[in-house]
Amino acid sequence: MKQHRQTIQKTLVLDAIHELKSHVTAAEVYELIIKKHPTISKGTVYRNLNQLAQNNKIKKIVTASGAERFDHSCHDHYHAVCVHCNKMIDVEMPYMSKLESTIKDAEGFVFSGHDIVFQGVCSECAKQNNN
To answer: What is the pairing mode between strands 68-71 and 88-91?
Structure first.
């Protein structure tokens, strides 16, 4: 089994994810890190985000629009995204670990897991639309 080094860059990226605590984009992580470490490249941040996600240190969420978000909370859970402002939140509901086994015809597809992202309007956008 390959050992994954914890480089300074990985530590910076992981610390930024934990500091931001929301479902952040790679650009948001980069913007936070660049303030304290102006020599770090965007490519380094993006590469380390993907490596941390592959190593299950953070969770990568791909939305319907194709945008990637990164979550500091790695346990299996679901999300909701606002169709107006793109805010993403955790959804409090039981994770359906056996959901894949309920699929009737997978055409030979072998499942390795699932992510569900609900769509709707967040409370802030709903308030603005009612005014």
So the answer is: unpaired
Give the phi and the psi of residue 71 in degrees, each rounded to 5: -120, 135
Beta bridge partners of 100: none
Residues whose CB falls within 8 Å of the CB of residue 19, separated by 6 or more in sequence, listed in order: 32
pLDDT tens for each residue of 8-42: 899 999 999 999 988 999 999 999 999 999 999 99
Q: What whole-number distance in Å separates Cα of residue 121 and Cα of residue 109?
A: 33
Residue closest to 75 by CA, chosen among 88, 99, 87, 93: 93
Quote the pTM value: 0.81
Burial environment of residue 88 by CB neighbours within 10 A (0 to 12, 13 to 18, 19 or more): buried
